[in-house]
Structures are given as structure tokens and as C-alpha cells.
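Quick question, first post here. What does this chain look like in 3D?
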Amino acid sequence: MTRFLAVGHVTRDVFPGEEDWRLGGTVTYTSATAARLGAHAALVTRVGPKERARLEERCRALGIELFAVAGEVTTTFAFRYEDGHRILTLRARARGLTLADVPVDLRAADAVVLGSVAHEIDRSLLGAFGHAATVVTAQGYLREWAADGTIHPRRWDDVAEVTAKASAIVLSEEDVGGDLDEPRRWAGHTPVIVTFAERGSLVLVDGTERMIPAYHADRVVDPTGAGDAFAAGLSIALSEGRELIDGVRFAHAVASFAVEAVGTDGLADRARVEARMRG
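> Answer (accepted):
Ran it through. C-alpha cells below.
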């Protein structure tokens, strides 16, 4: 059984018109995806007292081994829409995570996703997992926030330090505003995969580029978490010895199910993923 580890902040997501909040964050979706694929999935995060019970309940239901460091708050994002554009505001941020927060036995994981959402991944976590297939999601590195919490794009200044110790970097075209010049530059250090939703992904490797088509979903209900499911699928595929392009195809098949229902309800097991790949 593949040993999967996700490290990063779970989030409390607040949406306009909704009285209740949602549990979010890259690691919430990546760990759920891994568990559904049959891996032993572990999640290391930091959570405040108000959200702990819901997180524990969710992880029990999904079969995720949870290691939640106690925090004063949970990283919280508020979403709103203006003129069709999503505006994100950081309302609270938990303290970051270091290697000391990861139990020793989890450091022997086969597949790892470092899922930053708010600069919470400490340098001590980079390259800390031996020969594990380590996928870094770039989203959290590509944002910063103003005094009022409004999120803005950020230039990834320490990218070389991160990419040198990763198996692959995953981001969406939205994370870079559609500008691929920077991802192309990063790909000189390690493979970079830019996802384009239902259009597929662009695989960048040291000056080469290859577009990989996505798999067709039976229906699109909720795209939230599809990119995170992709990252989890890629890390597991690479840990099992698949070549990069085959791993990307597997990740696309995994992500294609994620959009078919709300939250984690659409995630498929390995048999269904492999069947979709076979057509």
C-alpha cells in the first residue's frame, strides 16, 4: 500500500450568502484523493479549536490519518465575486509548519504533497522525505496579502530552492494569470505541470513542452479541488514508478472524477480511474 502524506494548512472557507463555513485547503482534497485511491493517507496540518472537531470527523469518514497541531486559529479565507472575478481575502492565518511537526514514522512516505496556501511550508520540509515522490503545489507561493487581507499575485523569488528539492511542481493557469514565462523558467530545475481545467495540462521539462489532454468528465458539478486531486494522483503515480507523462495522464483521470460532485464526493477509486484511462 502506498504511503501518502499531505502537509499544509487546512482552511476555513467563507462564502457570501452561506451561513456555514466550508472545510478547504489543498491538503484536505489531496489526502481525501489518496485515501480514495487506496493509499494509506496521512495529513499534517495546524488547526484552531473551532474547526478541529469538524476536521477530525471529516478525516475519520474519509479514512485519513490526521496529525493536527494545535493552533490559535485556522487559516481562513473569505470569497466574494465582483464583475465575475473572484476576490480572495485572508481573514486569519495559522502559524507555519516545520519538519518538527511531522511524526518521524510519516517521513518515510512514498508520495508527498506539500500543499501551501499561505506561505506555511517551512524550508525544513523541503527535501526532507528521502526518495519520496514529492509534488509541490505552487498556489500558496504565488500569492501575498495586503494589510486588509486582500490577496494579490506574488513573484516566486525562492523558487529555485523549492524546485531543486521537488519531483514536480503543479499549478493552474490562473495561478500565474495565464503568463507561462515564469513556469517555463522554473522548469529548468524540475518538471512543471500547468493545468488548464478540461483542456488538459502543459508539461514543461527543461526547455521542452508537451500538451496532455484531459479526460472527459461525465458531468461538471463542482471544479473545486480538481487541481488538488491532480497533484495527489501525480505524486502517487510517480511513487509507483510511472514515467512523468504517464503519471500526468493518471492524474488527469483522477481529477476528472473530482468535478463530478460537490467537494470530495466525486472522487473515484483506482479501478474506476484505470477504467477511464482505458476508455
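Helices lie at 26-36, 49-62, 159-163, 181-186, 226-239, 244-258, 270-278.
The chain has a mean pLDDT of 95.
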